[in-house]
Amino acid sequence: MESENNEEQEKPPRPSIAQLALPSIMGNLLYAIVGMVQTKFVGEMGAQALAAVGAGQRVFFALQAVMMAVAAGTTALVARAWGAGDFREASRVTMASLMVGTAFSLVLTVIGLVFADNIAGIFGLDAETIEMAAANIRILSLFSIAFALNFIISASLRAAGDAWTPLYIGVVVNLINIPLLYVFVFGMYGAPQLGVAGAALAAGIAFSVGGLLLLGLWLKQRLRVAHLKGGWARKERMIRLLDIGYPAGLEQAVFQAGFFIFLMLLGRYYGTEAFAAYNIGVNMLSICMVVGFGFSIAGSTLVGQHLGANDYPGAVRSGWRSAAMAVLSMGVLGALVIVYAQELAEYFIGSDALTIKYTVQFTYVLGAVMPLLAIDFAIGGSLRGAGDTRFPLRATIVGLLVMRCGLAAIFTYLNYSALWVYAALIGDYVVKSIMLLWRFHSGRWRSVVTTNSPARPQK
User: Fold this and answer.
1) pTM for the complete prediction?
2) Contact 236, 91 (CB under 8 A)
3) What is the rounded CA–CA span in Å between residue 444 and residue 58?
4) Rounded CA separation 343/332 (Å)
5) Is residue 437 within 8 Å of residue 316, measured between CB atoms?
6) Residues 18-49: pLDDT tens digits?
7) Residue of 110, 113, 116, 147 whose CA lies nearest to 132
8) Are 310 and 451 in contact (CB under 8 A)?
């Protein structure tokens, strides 16, 4: 008779940082390329359209904070179970996560559909931009379940050491997304010209295909993490999943709230051009961020698996190595984007001189702090992989809400230029990096979650 507790199974060899980071970087690079293509297409419609895409995406990311919370709990628990050789527990956690994620995604769909106009109006943009942003939010909300499937199954696979299957699915998603962008944004081949809303529809359809592919492979037992029909709905497992996940969800809520405040200041006091420049600059530097995300996944997975195998020194080494690689690679890429910031801005925007000026200024600031952002990605990911989701929440509150938003509000009150408001994010990443480095060095994350037991995590 099978036991609900640990099963004596041979533990698989753990993948290297490169084996986890490389496919994750490649997959997210594809998404970054799609983001750049979207920026180029929508940019031909002017700063209002770009601002609408940025506002709509920011709101939708805020609504998706719940999905990110569930994914964080999934990663920590699946990685621990896999490192301990308890493959059935990893499968049960995946099933439980999918049930929780699907339930929450239905709630998010209703919120996005009903309150799209109210939420889009927060940024203080002009009426036409708000209308486009609200349409973006409504369409994206219709596909919440598809996003949940992609988030959770991919997180589970990466935590089990399989970063290649999410990459292959990502290739399919992006091969669908790019031509649909062209068709729906510009109204080609008989399709309606939807503009900003067309970008949202293209993404929703593409992610729906990806989600259905992952779900089908999982149900047919074609994935590393198996599909189990029963044994997943234990109260202790649900408590454990939510107890790890809710601080990550709160962190994302704080994160998005901070960005709302920051972008509200830009939109209300510096205009649509300064608001649009933020979104364009982020897309220009997205290649750096996808690299950081890859090392975040590597650190998260390996720290969790090493802890599951009671190998604390291995967990420490994995975290520091992931951080070192992230700092080096993101720093170099950030410097390159800074060098070509003017040319890139002109390519994406065209002849809008004011938006180009703001974009170049923001790119200089964000590009310069890429090494600090690398620490946020890699060390923050390592802590979350250990189940220590509360401390990154504290770091985000202090760094984003107190430092970035506080400094931005002061600079706005003093009537400083938009460059000063952009520069407020330097304070954010300096403080956050110091806090995360201290936490990881302290080793207090080692026993945040009990290993190989579905009991409630330690406080």
Assistant:
1) 0.72
2) no
3) 33
4) 18
5) no
6) 777 788 788 777 777 777 777 777 777 777 77
7) 116
8) yes
